[in-house]
Amino acid sequence: MNILLINCSPVRNGATAEIIKTVHSFLERSHQIHNICIDDYEIHYCKGCRSCHQTAKCIQKDDVQTIIAEFEWADSIVCVSPSYWADVPGQFKAFIDRCTPWCNTHEPHEKLSAGKKGYAIALRTGPNMRECHRIIESIEHFYGHMEISPSGNLGLCSIAYKDDVDGRKQEIEAFCDLIQSLT
Ligand SMILES: Cc1cc2nc3c(=O)[nH]c(=O)nc-3n(C[C@H](O)[C@H](O)[C@H](O)COP(=O)(O)O)c2cc1C
Questions:
Q1: Would you say the CB of residue 125 lies under 6 angstroms from ligand 1?
Q2: By residue range, what is the domain housing residue 49?
Q3: What's the CATH code of the domain at 57?
Q4: Which of 83, 92, 93, 157 to mutate to test the pocket of ligand 1 (most atoms within 8 A of CB)?
Q5: Whose CA is nearest to atom 7 of ligand 1?
Q6: Rounded to an integer, what is the distance from CA 56 to the centroid of its chain?
Q7: Among 164, 170, 173, 169, which residue's Cα sits nearest to residue 14?
Q8: 39 burial class (0-12, 13-18, 19+ CB within 10 angstroms)?
Q9: 14 lines ligand 1 (CB under 6 A)
Q10: What is the Å distance from ligand 1's center to 63 Cα?
């Protein structure tokens, strides 16, 4: 199976990247993995012009199609997102907004191949899991309209820096077991 891991944080070597490393080393034993960081791409903001509602195409030219090609390659997608003000980081939100040509609420719309599974991992510094669930909800809402089946999620509180991930490897690997059992 092909699995795409997305670092939804603009930090390439922070706590989110550390979680992705753990997921990567677990799943690479039996799957092909692509690893991307949202900050490696040029993503312009959606202008809200809605021309994609008529054409299923965006008027802007940047790296969104390149990321979508990674989605198309993948059978499963794992978005790993920190909380930035109790939501996904702006760079990732900008990408979600630009996926409107693929959004299934209007016709015509672009389509990814059917049968993809989506997983979400949210992390935050604070202790309350409700905020992680809010981020997971944003990611799963996105999956739903892209017709990617939300298939599992994990919230990790009390993580500020990458060293905090050390003590959480068991939780992360247990989640990888779930991904493994469903792929
Ligand atoms: C701009 C910004 C906003 C943040 N907002 C929150 C927040 O609202 N709640 C929270 O629990 N942690 C918040 N954090 C902490 C991050 O979620 C946490 O440090 C995470 O581990 C960062 O991962 P990263 O280094 O991979 O980006 C924020 C961090 C930044 C940089």
A1: yes
A2: 2-182
A3: 3.40.50.360
A4: 83
A5: 85
A6: 22
A7: 164
A8: middle
A9: yes
A10: 25
**Helix axis angle, 169-182 to 15-27, nearest 10°:** 50
CA–CA distance, 167 with 25 (Å, rounded to integer): 16
Q: What is the largest CA-CA distance in the chain?
A: 50
**Nearest CA residue ID for atom 28, ligand 1:** 84
Residue-level pLDDT at 1? 95
From the CB of 9, is ligand 1 less than 6 Å away? Answer: yes
Assign 32 to helix, strand or coil.
strand
Provide the pLDDT for residue 183.
Answer: 79
pTM of the model: 0.98
Instruction: Quote the CA–CA distance of 54 and 10 in Å, as a whole number.
Output: 32
Instruction: Work out whether the CA dihedral 165, 168, 169, 173 comes out positive or negative.
Output: negative
Non-local (6+) Cβ contacts of 177 within 8 A are: none
* Average pLDDT, integer, range 10-16: 97
Crossing angle for the helix pair 90-98 and 64-73, to the nearest 10 degrees = 80
Number of structural domains in the chain? 1
CA–centroid distance, 88 to ligand 1, in Å, is 10
Which atom belonging to ligand 1 lies closest to the Cα atom of 9? Answer: 27
